Structures are given as structure tokens and as C-alpha cells.
């Protein structure tokens, strides 16, 4: 498989002087997703968990609803300048052919969709509406999850250049953590893991992300039926609007012992 880190030369400039040394960087490579042999999309990602990424992306786009909808996922042959397989083309065979080529995927910034249109699109497409109740999660447990997520970011420790997403049980148990140069890819990877483990709809799980909560990340949580999303940084206004529309518990600035809960705080047990 492709490497997730690479070494590059750098000049370190500091008050103590300039030194030349190698630096460890996160690998960023394109992944082309094909469906039944035809190109669907290309995303820039960190190699690893590509099959989870494909499952999560297809679920988020409402192309599949269960792991049984995919018959196979195979890498296509491709080599780099050294003759090594790049593993950068993944072909997905669906159980039931779907006319998806040429469709416009719902995206976020600069997609040209107004807020109302975007909200309506997600609400009408999700197969797994979020239940009005449960799970009930201790606010102290939710506050502890970003640090727990951070402790599982092994590639970030080496590079300082990756986002992360994690799925947790209501008691704070770690179920899956994935890293990627793209925050949306990291979320697709953990959702894809849940789909392949038959944990979708994820009505009993908590999603935590290492950065901000964009509309796109809330969209992915809603499409997977995840009821609670915690983010280390801020949400966008449209992310909050979608969370309110969908009944998702959205917490931002989850750091230390504090957080801002923007909607559906009834799922958090506050002591």
C-alpha cells in the first residue's frame, strides 16, 4: 500500500541559526472512485482506509444504504515512476446499477446552493432520520473525547498536518479513529467503517472531529443517522441550521471542561 508519510528536505530558520534537515510530511494523493468501471469522482486524500472512505462517501451521497449494496471494491492497476502500484484508483461494483454519472454532488462553500436549498436537499435524502431521543451522554465524557481522539492520531504526531475523526460509544469507548489531509475524508472513513461493521444507522454513536464543524460534516453525520457531533473548533451558521433542522446535537469548542452546545442539548447529561 501507499505510504502515509514522506520525507522532504527543509531549511529550519530560528534565532539560533539556520539548519538544513529532513521533515516528515503527510502524504496527499488523488483517489479516483469508479462505480461499475466508470469514473465517479476524484478526491485528494491520505492513503489508507480507502475502502472505508469509499463506503462512507457513497453513503453520504445516498448512493448506498448498507454494506450489502456493494458487491466488491478493487484497486485498479497503476504505477508510479518507480514502477510501484499507486493504489489510487478504486472501482466499486454495486449490487444494483444506479444512474449516478454526471450528477452534481451536494458540496459546501462555493457550491452555488443557497442555505434553504442545501437544508432541504439533506433532509429529503437521508435514509436514517435522527430519533428525537437518546443516546444520553454525560457532558464530561463528551468533553474528554477530543483529547482521547488526539491521543490516537499517530500520523499527526509525526507530521502535524492531518485532520481526524472518531466514532465513540455513549460511554466514551473508542470505536474507530481515522486521519486524513481532508476533514471530510476522515469523517467518510469512520462512517464507512461503521457501515462495513453494520453500525449504520449510527443512532447510538458520537462523532468527534478535530477541527471545525462545517455544513458538510454535519451533512455526513445526518446521512449516517449520527445523533451527536462534537467539534474542537467552531461550527458554521449553516452547519447549525442543518443540525437544528435534523435534530442533531451539535457542540463546538469542545475543549477541556467547556463547550458550546448549539442545539438539542437534551442528549447531554449535565451535572
UniProtKB/TrEMBL annotation:
Question: What is the source species?
Answer: Nocardia pulmonis
Q: Where are the transmembrane segments?
A: none
The entry assigns this protein to a family as follows: Belongs to the FdhD family.
* Region (Disordered) location: 1-23
| Major localization listed first in the record, in broad terms | cytoplasm
Active site (record annotation): 111 (cysteine persulfide intermediate)
Could you list this entry's UniProt keywords, alphabetically sorted: Cytoplasm, Molybdenum cofactor biosynthesis
Please provide an example of a Pfam family that matches this protein in its UniProt record.
FdhD-NarQ
Q: Name one GO cellular component term.
A: cytoplasm
Biological role stated in the UniProt entry: Required for formate dehydrogenase (FDH) activity. Acts as a sulfur carrier protein that transfers sulfur from IscS to the molybdenum cofactor prior to its insertion into FDH.
Where is it localised? Cytoplasm
- Gene3D superfamilies, A to Z: 3.10.20.10, Cytidine Deaminase, domain 2 (3.40.140.10)
Q: A Gene Ontology molecular-function term? A: sulfurtransferase activity
InterPro entries from the UniProt entry: Cytidine_deaminase-like, FdhD
Q: Which gene encodes it?
A: fdhD
Q: What name goes with this protein?
A: Sulfur carrier protein FdhD
Task: Give the GO biological process terms.
Answer: Mo-molybdopterin cofactor biosynthetic process
Instruction: Enumerate composition-biased segments (Basic residues).
Output: 1-11
Could you name the domain of life of the organism this protein comes from?
Answer: Bacteria
